[in-house]
Amino acid sequence: MSHEPAHRGRVVALASGSGSNVQALLDADPPLPVAAAITDRPEAGVRDRMAAAGIPSEVVPRAAHADRAAWEAALARAVAAYAPDVVVLAGFMRILSGAFVARWPMLNVHPSLLPAFPGAHAVADALAHGVKLSGATVHFAAEEVDAGPIVAQQAVAVDPEDTVASLHARIQRVEHALLPQAVAWQLGGRLRVDGRLVHVLADPADPGDPGEAPPDPV
Length: 218
Ligand code: GAR
What we know:
- By secondary structure, this protein is α/β, with parallel strands linked by helices.
- It contains 6 helices and 9 strands, in the order βαβαβαβαβαββαββ.
- The chain has one domain: Rossmann fold (3-Layer(aba) Sandwich), CATH 3.40.50.170.
- α1 (20-27) runs parallel beside α2 (46-53) and α1 (20-27) packs across α6.
- The protein is globular and about 45 Å long.
- It starts with 10 loop residues before the first strand and ends in an 18-residue tail after the last strand.
- Bound molecules: glycinamide ribonucleotide (GAR).
């Protein structure tokens, strides 16, 4: 058991896929306080993970709404009902408006070293480009996709034998450490955004913690 105090606040996760990054928030020590996960896909694996953890999940499908604005308004209502302190985009594969991303502090996890390879096919794009290093990024969401101020990044070496699946699996292992760390910093009031630069402030509860600590490359 951890002797760290529990995190205070409420996290709402938006996810379209398996939800392994939401799982990483639940598995953190101490666990991050995930109040709910909301998905656009009824079949998303994240719903099974939430059911297993006894945490509510909701589906707000795009197809059930006449247009993008109506869908996004329904999504905003669903998120607002849980009064989040931070919203986490954990593999949420739909574009959100500037008004939506400005409504709550919002962190996104992305499987590349941004600004390289934004978009929905980051791992395939990195492989196709022949890069030797890729990695994971956690950043504040902004109106422009995958472009907000960067909170944390960690590099992953590309193996010549890598497939999209093998490289993505190694990047996700890194995501599962970076994302909980970034969410904990945000809930602890330790992130200060200064233009494009995000400063990680020292932990007031731990005089030995100097703040920013670059992770070791994998
Ligand atoms: C994650 O690797 C995340 O970085 C990626 O989707 C995956 C979701 O996995 N997001 C994007 O590509 C966003 N552009 P998960 O459902 O197992 O957490």
